[in-house]
Amino acid sequence: MNRGLYISTMGMLANMAQLDTISNNLANADTTGYKKDEITFKAYLKKEFRNYDSVDIKRGKHVGYMETALVADETKPIISQGQIVETNNPTDFAIFGDGFFKVERNGKIYYSRNGEFKRNQEGYLVTSEGDYLLDSNNKHIQVPKNFTVDESGNIYNGTQSTGQKISIVNLKKPSKFGINLFTGTEVVSNNYKIIQGSIEKSNVNTLKEMINLINANRAFNILEKSVQTQDYMTGKIIESAQRI
Fold first, then answer.
1. Where are the transmembrane segments (predicted)?
2. 205: left (phi over 0), alpha (psi -120 to 50) or beta
3. Which of 8, 75, 148, 203 has its CA 20 to 30 A from that of 50?
4. Are the beta carbons of 141 and 133 closer than 8 angstroms?
């Protein structure tokens, strides 16, 4: 009875983690460049079963394992393409394909798919939080009022190149830092196009996430009832034992 209560409780904790992940995805469905998270699970405390009717009486024959609990393993971002939406704002950029923008915050480099930038008073391209967009030499990008960017990220003042190029890199094993920034090991990205005057929306499928939320909530409720039932039965067993 106690083992069943333990398994059900562990299942509830796993479902709570899943509900938190799905809720966070839905909350950021309209966040530019947001990449949804998915949670993975693993078996915890596997119990081995052996058959001792075999020739080797001492060791027995391996039959299999029984999973005694399921726990949340890790949360991974899903780096898939979001919808490209035109804004006609020259400081907005969308990446079509692979890669991330490089931005600098307090001397540290982070990565993002959010291409909503603005031109500050000094003419530098920055995020809404004030992070600087970096070029291929990890320098802050300063642009004139009337500038253009080609699909490779090269920046022009009219027809004249400014000598700067927006840095786009891929990441090996990207990990989220906050809501919309990433950390990871840089690798070369060649399969991309930069689209000026557009942004990339989140890759959250709201309908699918709502279905996942309903299913996870149902599973949680079932496990909750299981815990209540087992708790009730345990109480009855204790009462019966006390009467003996």
1. none
2. beta
3. 8
4. yes
Q: Within a domain: residue 67?
A: yes
pLDDT tens, position by position, 149-162: 999 999 999 889 99
Q: Give the pLDDT of residue 48.
A: 64
CA dist 197 and 83 (Å) reads: 14
Q: Count of alpha carbons within 13 Å of 107, Cβ hemisphere only?
A: 0
CB distance 152 to 165 below 8 Å: yes
pLDDT of 42: 74
- Return the closest-CA partner of residue 173 out of 37, 38, 35, 76: 76
Cα 146 → chain centroid? 36
The C-alpha atoms of residue 40 and residue 36 are separated, in whole angstroms, by 13
Is there a domain that residue 206 lies in?
no
SS3 75: strand
How much is the pLDDT for 55?
Answer: 58
For 186, phi then psi, to 5°, come to -70, 140
Is 231 in the same domain as 187? no
Tens-digit pLDDT profile for residues 59-68:
667 766 655 6
pLDDT < 50: residue spans in the chain: 1
Say whether both 222 and 196 belong to one domain.
Answer: no
Find the angle CA(39)-CA(40)-CA(42) to the nearest 5 degrees: 145
Axis crossing angle, helix 2-27 with helix 206-243, rounded to the nearest 10: 160
DSSP 8-class letter at 54: S
